[in-house]
Structure formats: structure tokens, C-alpha cells
């Protein structure tokens, strides 16, 4: 990402060392709380907690230069928060994240690209046909969700064109909510899962994600335009994530530019933790066991054999753990 200069760059920075934090991180008692709803080349569009209608453009303050700030981050702003055109606030603090959805450019690349912070739910949007479903990609999304601390939801679109039963069966052992949509169909089941939560919508091109966003968020295109306009970067249409407000309460983050999930940095342990029933059994595995293939040394196999774990769930877990390195 291009590094931006801001007014703090001319200030002499205190030397790093064992000084009290207040020296390089002043108290900023006057700072106001906001959430980042859009990012464009070093400029951040922020929505104030106290004035949800106000979008404020901001840059990172000097002490924040090494801190990544992404959509969904909760931040503290100082300076001009009027939202007036051409004026910039400064981000002086980023609150601790509750979750991070990340990807890497590809599986061999260890560099993580965090995409969205603090989301509760990852909605994996997949058409039952046209384009044909890609279970490999769904599995990768599931791994990214479990790894990042988000609860996945599978949203199957275009159920007017084909029967979703095979996909529903494939994902049943995972126990995640599966909802279906079709033109004119009601969205209540999905809305119930999204209301008052922060959710991220991911879907491969053509699956009907824009159609869904437009149904969930009235005037979604205008709302996206407003978020992108605040950073003042001309007519550039951002392909980055944008956080939109749900009328029912809650936030939906659209991720237009994300085409796939590279899983270079995923921790198998974090994925395993999402399978509570199996995680307990895995405690009896040999140290370093990857749990990937049936083996006398993997306690997951004995747990299934002894009736303490479900074979279909173990197969699903192994499929997910094996997605790393497999092409989507
Ligand atoms: N039959 C049917 N068509 C749908 C449904 N949802 C979306 N479509 C159509 O599928 C096509 C793709 O929908 P979009 O919403 O643009 O898909 P997208 O996932 O946003 O695709 P990109 O914009 O390329 O990222 C459009 O022609 C939609 O009208 C559905 O539930 N049933
Ligand atoms: Zn094992």
C-alpha cells in the first residue's frame, strides 16, 4: 500500500525505547470513536459512533504509521471530524480487534492481507447453478472464517434454477446455517442472521452477490458511492471492501475485489477449534499430528471408531484442512 504523508510526518518522532507510552501515544482525551467503513490508498472513510450519518475522511496519525487499519476497525479520531469536504481527521488509536478476516495472495505466500476487522459473520454467497458451485472455494471461505474467528453462513442463490439439496447435504455435517434465495423470495431467514451484527458478504463473480446487497441495503450503489467519495480520490471506483448499514440494524460489508482466499497463513489449530467435538479428541493425538489422513496415530480416527465423534464431521474437517495447497 502506498505510504501517505500527513502533517505528523514533519514532527520529530520520539526515540523508541522504554519510555512511558504516553510520550508517543498521547492521551487524546478529546478523541471521538468511529468505525472505518472504507479504505482507499491511505485515506479512511470513518463513521462516527455518535452521528451515524456523518462520514469523515481521515489519515493515520504519526504514531499509527505501522498499524494496519482496515474496514471494520474501531478507531479514535482527532482533528476535524465535521466531515466537511477537503478536511482530514487523524486516526490516533485502533481498538483491539475481535476478529480478522484475512487472505494471502496465494497459498505459498505467507503475507497476510487483512480484509475486514471485527466482523461476526461471513456470508458465503454461492449460486446453485450458473455459475456452477465451487465447493473448493466454499471450503476455503470456511477455513478463512474459522481461522479469523467469524461464524460462517452459507447463502445459496438462484434456487429458482436448480435444487440446492446436494449442496445442503454436503455442508450439513458442518452445522452452519444454510439459507437459500431466489428472485422475489423472502429474505427473513438471512436477515435474522445479520440483524445487529457485522457481516461480510463474499461471493465469486456472477453468483448474485450484488443482487443480494441491493435487496438488503436500500440504494446500496448510492451508499457505496458516498463511502468512496469521502476519501476524495476523484472518480476512482474502489474495489476494496465497503461497510454498509442494514436498515434493520447491523452492518454488511461488501467485498467486491476479493476473488479468492489464499490460505498461506492459516493455523490448522484455529480451524480445529471451530469443531469443538473433534478438538477435544485431538488433544490425544501425537504432538504435531496434522489430523489430515486416517492414521493409527490420529486420535480423531479412534474417536470415530469408539463412537465419540461423527465420521461425516471428521471427513468435513479433513476436507477443510486439506484445502490449503489445493486449487480452489
Ligand atoms: N435466476 C436467478 N438469477 C439471479 C439470482 N440472483 C441473481 N441473478 C442474476 O445473476 C446475474 C448475476 O448477478 P449479480 O448480482 O450481478 O452477481 P454478482 O455476484 O454480484 O456478480 P459480479 O457483479 O460479477 O460480482 C444477474 O443477471 C442477476 O440478475 C437468482 O436468485 N435467480
Ligand atoms: Zn490427529
Summarize the helices and strands and which ones pair or pack.
Layout: E1 32-40, E2 43-48, E3 55-60, E4 74-79, E5 89-94, E6 100-103, E7 113-117, E8 121-127, H1 135-148, E9 151-157, H2 165-171, E10 178-180, H3 188-194, E11 198-203, H4 209-216, H5 220-230, E12 242-245, E13 251-254, H6 268-273, H7 276-282, H8 299-305, H9 311-321
Parallel strand pairs: 3-5, 8-9, 8-11, 9-10, 11-13
Antiparallel strand pairs: 1-2, 1-4, 2-3, 4-5, 6-7, 12-13
Structure at a glance:
The protein is α/β, with parallel strands linked by helices and 328 residues long. It folds into three domains: 7-94, OB fold (Dihydrolipoamide Acetyltransferase, E2P); 100-254, P-loop containing nucleotide triphosphate hydrolases (Rossmann fold), CATH 3.40.50.300; 268-321, Ribonucleotide Reductase Protein R1, domain 1 (Orthogonal Bundle), CATH 1.10.40. The chain is built from nine helices and 13 strands.
Describe the protein in words:
The chain is an alpha/beta fold and 328 residues long. The chain folds into 3 domains: 7-94, OB fold (Dihydrolipoamide Acetyltransferase, E2P); 100-254, Rossmann fold (3-Layer(aba) Sandwich), CATH 3.40.50.300; 268-321, Ribonucleotide Reductase Protein R1, domain 1 (Orthogonal Bundle), CATH 1.10.40. The longest helix has 14 residues, at 135-148. Mean pLDDT is 86; it is low at 1-24. The protein has 9 helices and 13 strands. It has helices at residues 135-148, 165-171, 188-194, 209-216, 220-230, 268-273, 276-282, 299-305, 311-321; strands spanning 32-40, 43-48, 55-60, 74-79, 89-94, 100-103, 113-117, 121-127, 151-157, 178-180, 198-203, 242-245, 251-254. Strands 10-9-8-11-13-12 form a 6-stranded mixed β-sheet. A 5-stranded mixed beta barrel has the order 1-2-3-5-4. Strands 6-7 form a two-stranded antiparallel ribbon. Bound molecules: guanosine-5'-triphosphate and zinc ion. Zinc ion binds at residues 282, 285, 289, 291, 298-300.
Amino acid at each position: 500500500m502506498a505510504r501517505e504523508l500527513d502533517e505528523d510526518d514533519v514532527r520529530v518522532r520520539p526515540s523508541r525505547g522504554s519510555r512511558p507510552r504516553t510520550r508517543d501515544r498521547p492521551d487524546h482525551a478529546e478523541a471521538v470513536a468511529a468505525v472505518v467503513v472504507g479504505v482507499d490508498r491511505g485515506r479512511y472513510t470513518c463513521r462516527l459512533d455518535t452521528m451515524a450519518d456523518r462520514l469523515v475522511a481521515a489519515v493515520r496519525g504519526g504514531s499509527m504509521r505501522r498499524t494496519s487499519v482496515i474496514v471494520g476497525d474501531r478507531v479514535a479520531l482527532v482533528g476535524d471530524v465535521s466531515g466537511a469536504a477537503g478536511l482530514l481527521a487523524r486516526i490516533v488509536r485502533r481498538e483491539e480487534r475481535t476478529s480478522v478476516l484475512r487472505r494471502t495472495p496465494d497459498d505459498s505466500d505467507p503475507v497476510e492481507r487483512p480484509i475486514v476487522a471485527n466482523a461476526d459473520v461471513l456470508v458465503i454467497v454461492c449460486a446453485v447453478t450458473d455459475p456452477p458451485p465451487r465447493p473448493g472455494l466454499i471450503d476455503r471461505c470456511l477455513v478463512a472464517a474459522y481461522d479469523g474467528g467469524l461464524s460462517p453462513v452459507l447463502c445459496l442463490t438462484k434456487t429458482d434454477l436448480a435444487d440446492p439439496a446436494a449442496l445442503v447435504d454436503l455442508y450439513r455435517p458442518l452445522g452452519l446455517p444454510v439459507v437459500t434465495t431466489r428472485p422475489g423470495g423472502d429474505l427473513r431467514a438471512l436477515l435474522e442472521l445479520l440483524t445487529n451484527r457485522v457481516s461480510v458478504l463474499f461471493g465469486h463473480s456472477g453468483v448474485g452477490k450484488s443482487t443480494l446487497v441491493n435487496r438488503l441495503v436500500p440504494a446500496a450503489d448510492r451508499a457505496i458511492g458516498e463511502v468512496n467519495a469521502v476519501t476524495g480520490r476523484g472518480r476512482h471506483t474502489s474495489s476494496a471492501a465497503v461497510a454498509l448499514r442494514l436498515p434493520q440494524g447491523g452492518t454488511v460489508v461488501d467485498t467486491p475485489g476479493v476473488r479468492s482466499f489464499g490460505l498461506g497463513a492459516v493455523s490448522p489449530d484455529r480451524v480445529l477449534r471451530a469443531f469443538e467435538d473433534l478438538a477435544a479428541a485431538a488433544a490425544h493425538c501425537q504432538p504435531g499430528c496434522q489430523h489430515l489422513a486416517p492414521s493409527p496415530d490420529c486420535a480423531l480416527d479412534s474417536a470415530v471408531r469408539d463412537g465419540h465423534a461423527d465420521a461425516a464431521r471428521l471427513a468435513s474437517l479433513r476436507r477443510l484442512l486439506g484445502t490449503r495447497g489445493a486449487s480452489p
